Amino acid sequence: MKNKTKVQEYFTAFVMLLPYIISFFMFFAYPLAKAFIISFQEFSFLGDTPPKFVGLLNYKEALTNKMFLDSIVNTFYYSILVVPTQLIIALILAVIVNDKVKFKDFFRTTYYLPTVTSPVAVSIIFLFLYKTDGLVNQILSHIGITPRNWFNEPSFVMPAIVSVAVWGSVGFYMVTFLSGLSTIPDQLYEAAEVEGAGEFTKLIKITIPLLKPMIFFNTVVSFISTLQMFDLSYIIGGSDGGPMGKAMTMVVMIYRTAFKEFNMGVASAMAFIVFGIIFILTLIQRKFFGEEMSY
Question: Does residue 294 surpass a pLDDT of 50?
Answer without folding.
Answer: no
